[in-house]
Amino acid sequence: xxxxxxxxxxxxxxxxxxxxxxxxxxxxxxxxxxxxxxxxxxxxxxxxxxxxxxxxxxxxxxxxxxxxxxxxxxxxxxxxxxxxxxxxxxxxxxxxxxxxxxxxxxxxxxxxxxxxxxxxxxxxxxxxxxxxxxxxxxxxxxxxxxxxxxxxxxxxxxxxxxxxxxxxxxxxxxxxxxxxxxxxxxxxxxxxxxxxxxxxxxxxxxxxxxxxxxxxxxxxxxxxxxxxxxxxxxxxxxxxxxxxxxxxxxxxxxxxxxxxxxxxxxxxxxxxxxxxxxxxxxxxxx
Length: 286
Known about the structure:
mainly beta; 11-stranded mixed beta sheet
């Protein structure tokens, strides 16, 4: 898709510039600890076996109690990896795996609020960048968990360059958010406004929210949920589960043996003879 190609090009250019500049020293505040109550929100794996990150992750953030991050971002180490947070601006985050380290480049954020030990600043031409260590305990079979929580902006998050060594969980918020997922088993919660989620090569769980959303499951067997309003959902390849829930939805089965549940509203499903559909007002063959 043209949007995807353009987005990736921008992300890789920013990351390439960061690598050319090299790694510089840690921020002045990096020697102190920075913890807050949202670090301890409940974490759990997906209720749908085999879908989404392997390790427990936060699946939604209650209103209130969040860290003020106007034009700022911060990173925290968690039990199973890293947590990136930003807020009140249009986050434009690209993550890459380079020379055994995880790189974050956010061209939409002005400065770091805090960086922990294990992460160093990257010298980037626009926004903020950081390079973080990856523990030796993480493997493709037991991936590192990377949680990303941007808030209150039209955010773009891209982990398409990450291999299966990483599972990524994105929590959207207010704003029209876009998430591009990588090779791991990932999660995207769009929450509010008009969001778009593009699955990668793993078994992803993509759940959008209150407005007219777009979902493309990508490769492998995914769990794709439109929730409210008039959503468009593509299964992609693999044996997928597609759920329209409320609103007038359009659901498209892809390759594989898919299950479609249209839900409430006046829905349209396009599927093959090997697929199964439930509660769809209109069906047609693909």
